[in-house]
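dumping this here so i dont lose it
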């Protein structure tokens, strides 16, 4: 009997067709519908493998819905919304995708948000659509400069490095903070200066978040940190929402302790704080750092690679809980 696979939202056609060569495949066809817990439980109950996406909450009850569940194959870098402990206890592999796939795309989006909020692109777009064309040399649409300013990068993994490379093109002074400092030759090649986090916050015109979400980085940026920033500075977050205390961000923006923010991620996705949505000096995208057609196709096909390895009785190449296979 061919294995049965359920995909929680539409993914690249090429990936689905590859799976159909080896399995029976069903999927939720609505890209705007994030499946509820009851829907996930029902899907897992009737299928052998769950192919899930970023906003699917695969908790203990979902995993336990099928005692014969063979795998949870995720199209994410880290399975933050999957109960990996429960899956591991049941010896169910949880697979992911390599982080390096997303480095350039996420850095590009961070830069798009940075430019948009500083140069008030979204506000200008809304004015034009409403029929308003202010005097183009009046002070009405003045924003913040980018070229030659100071960029502070929090987290120097692959995306942080890619962001630094883009900053060099704008002749920016590049500060970074990461618990693991880069080797000196790499700092020199990227034009980076390591500083303590407090110094980075105090000196930067733009603070771009590229850290991983861990217990140590949750609410890494809160009221104390916003108080250190320049009133003319902007916060950019394309990493994970809970790294920034969203209520503290609202207070910082309301109190004009910082100038604005560009956000692709939110503390309680998919629902940003309504106060943020009302602020013209905040630019939003709906967690779409990887939303490039070719990249999303590559990501989906990595998930398929993992699944096909499992079907063939092999350890998948991107297994998060590889300890279930022993030595």
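and the seq i came up w/
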């Amino acid at each position: 009997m061919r294995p049965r696979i359920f995909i929680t939202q539409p993914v690249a056609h090429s990936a689905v067709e590859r799976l159909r060569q080896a399995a029976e495949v069903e999927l939720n066809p609505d890209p705007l519908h994030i499946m509820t817990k009851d829907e996930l439980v029902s899907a897992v109950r009737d299928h052998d493998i769950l192919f899930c996406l970023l906003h699917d909450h695969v908790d203990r009850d979902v995993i336990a819905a099928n005692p014969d569940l063979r795998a949870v194959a995720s199209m994410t870098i880290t399975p933050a919304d999957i109960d990996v402990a429960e899956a591991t206890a049941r010896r169910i592999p949880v697979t992911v995708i390599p982080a390096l796939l997303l480095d350039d795309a996420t850095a590009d989006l961070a830069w798009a948000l940075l430019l948009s909020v500083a140069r008030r692109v979204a506000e200008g777009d809304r004015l034009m659509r409403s029929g308003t064309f202010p005097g183009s040399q009046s002070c009405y649409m003045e924003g913040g400069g980018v070229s030659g300013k100071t960029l502070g990068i929090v987290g120097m993994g692959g995306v942080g490095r890619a962001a630094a490379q883009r900053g060099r093109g704008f002749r920016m002074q590049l500060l970074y903070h990461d618990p693991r400092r880069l080797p000196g030759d790499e700092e020199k090649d990227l034009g980076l200066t390591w500083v303590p986090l407090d110094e980075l916050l105090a000196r930067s015109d733009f603070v771009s978040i590229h850290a991983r979400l861990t217990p140590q980085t949750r609410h890494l940026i809160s009221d104390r940190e916003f108080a250190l920033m320049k009133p003319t500075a902007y916060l950019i977050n394309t990493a994970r929402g809970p790294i920034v205390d969203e209520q503290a961000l609202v207070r910082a923006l309301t109190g004009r302790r910082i100038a604005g923010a560009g956000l692709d991620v939110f503390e309680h996705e998919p629902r940003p704080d309504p106060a943020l949505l009302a602020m013209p000096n905040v630019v939003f995208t709906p967690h779409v750092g990887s939303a490039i057609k070719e990249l999303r196709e590559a990501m989906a096909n990595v998930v398929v690679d993992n699944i096909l390895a499992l079907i063939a009785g092999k350890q998948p190449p991107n297994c998060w809980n590889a300890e279930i296979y022993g030595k």
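The chain is about 35% helix and 15% strand.
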